[in-house]
Amino acid sequence: MAEQKASTSIEAVESGLAAQGYIASRQIATAVYLSQKIEKPILVEGPAGVGKTELAKAIAGWRGKKMIRLQCYEGLDEAKALYEWKYAKQLLYTQILKDKLGEVLGGAQTLRAALDQLHDFGDVFFSKEFVEPRPLLQALEQPGGCVLLIDEIDKSDAEFESLLLEILSDFQVTIPELGTVSAITPPTVILTSNSERDLGDALKRRCLHLHIGFPEQRLEERIVESRVPGISQTLRRQMVGFIHEIRSLDLKKLPSVSETIDWARVLVLLQASGLDTEIVKDTLNVLLKYEADIEAAAPQITTFIAKAARSNVFG
Amino acid sequence: MRENLHRFFRAARGAGVHVSPAESIDAMRAVAQVGLTDRAILRDTLLLTLAKSQDEKLALGDCFDLFFSQPEPPQDQAEANNDASQDGDQPPSSGSASEAGGGQPAEGLGPLAQILLSQDRNAIQAAIASASGAASLSDIRYSTQRGIFSSRILDAMGLQRLRDDLDEITATNPALAERLRAALDALREAVRDTVSQGLALYAREEAENLRNEILRNAPLARIERRQVAEMRALIRQIARRLRERYSKPRKRQRRGHLDVRRTLRRNAAWGGVPFLTAWKRKHRDRPKIVALCDISGSVAQVSDFFLLLIHSLHEVVDDVRSFAFSSHLIEVSEILEKKPPEEAMAEIMSTVGFGSSDYGSSLVDFERDFMSTLTPQTTVIVLGDARSNNLDPRADILRRISERSKRLVWLNPEGRLAWGFGDSEMPRYATFCSVVRQCATAQQLERAVSDIVATYQ
Chain B within 8 Å of A12 (Cβ-Cβ)? Predict the structure, then answer.
């Protein structure tokens, strides 16, 4: 039955991503599974550093496909994202072929006849040869399919969003001089956004919407386990518990998963066996990126360590 | 099952999630992929395909839980339905269930009586579900319709037949009749719960629309205390709409004028042969607004909402300076920026509020201290009823304000008929204003602010 297959294949996605070192929650795995089945892009939203970009890398690694990344920024336009004409090459070719053109057209008696003859070669100058494919076009031209990561779409302009619509819904682009280019194999498209601005409804409608928040404690422990294998179990539990306490504070920037992993690495490097006030104070700048945040968190360190240790005993 | 999903989409719309037909098709395709047996996966799937923001996800999650909070039909039935839906053939989900319930000894009783007596909860639930489908419970809109929908559902379940049965067996088998009567009461209760749930699911959208519509056209000055919070929410909604409409990029290409410098620079790589052309752009200013708000007596409430609206337009409006006055004038921009709206208004009121209004001396205050805030890009908005208690209106100052600024807009909460009567100085002021308009309801407020912002586009 379809259902049975669905839940097992969702598990398969989970384990596949896990093999790439990406521990996915079930919701993420469902999204990846669905995007493949109904051929829809995934729009991933969430705070910085929760693994939005990593997800695309993990999918590419797992499926053994090439990853093409398009980093969005303000002012990104068609010429940089989709394709560009190699004007210089076109010009150069025309110059070189000038004599050849004279030969070809030499036989023509009238201007009209020459024009007719020229029409036969007209398409030479607007052929694929002179198109410089940029990431979006590259992604469509990959014969084996690929993972297309459109990173931080919220940083781009609203016009660029509209440009994406055709690619996202039909996996094709229209180049006025050449016609429509369809994807050989539909790429897996991942869009990420930090919600810096609201995206248009048209774009959202074409995507599966996945929100990745901060992971639960268990999940985060597993993530640390897979990313920093050298860390002992007690320390792992303690530090993840501590970070969860930190996240309950009202801070400018909450520590996310990437910071947790960095901190775990730092603790392993310093050969810490458990958390104590001293070591946390020394390494707090790995977790918190603003002076004001560090000042706000510093007085709470001892309480948080105690709390984390307690949850360690019971949980 | 398709039927059920469609009902769920309607419920989702009721919960404030925008489900377009295209999205519902996507959701259908996705559900066909994952199947229905695992409720958690189904929930994730619907959240992924339908909800497009974090708020919508929360709302839809709640809606999902409410929608599927009915006791689940037993496993074998669900299975049977799934098989059926895969075959592409759609018997109503409860059809098989009521037949299953009908397998009891006949004794000449109607099907409803038999289901009730069999005490098969699932069969009863299924019968209610199918009857609410027949009574189109999903059309319920207002809480006053609860009674009629209950009785429609009961009718669809065959209440008439049950009554006849009851009459019949009361004579022959009093004990059985007693049991049946108790079961009927329980049934009524169950139906009432179903209808309440339906109301919670489907009616929210309509009720909200109706309430908002009434609220939009209610005079702001006479709004009731309990509605103030709702009004604030409505004003925020309006602000969001205006933001969405006007926060588009303000640069627009003006085709026709070549920007020679930029064109040459861009084509330097090809020896200055202009392959790529750059056109002159026209940069549009963002609105700069100076707002003068009367906060005496009846105008205070309107000013409150107006200030709330103006100050929630950060993305659209570059610069807002607000001033409040009754007998004299102070600047309130900072208070409004720093504090939540309720506190800010209270503080402003305690500083300058509750006096009798004196437009003349307030304008003098403005000219003395703040005239330099006006630039040729500024729109000045005065909100007030222009009732100056027969004091000198000092319209000459208003003339100077009008000369220094781009536009001078006067918003008056009173109707046009009242202008110029009693101590109203409106006609005298109106000569210096670019626009004078009535502004008594949220709708008029929205139009007024929208027009002001639109002049800068």
Answer: no
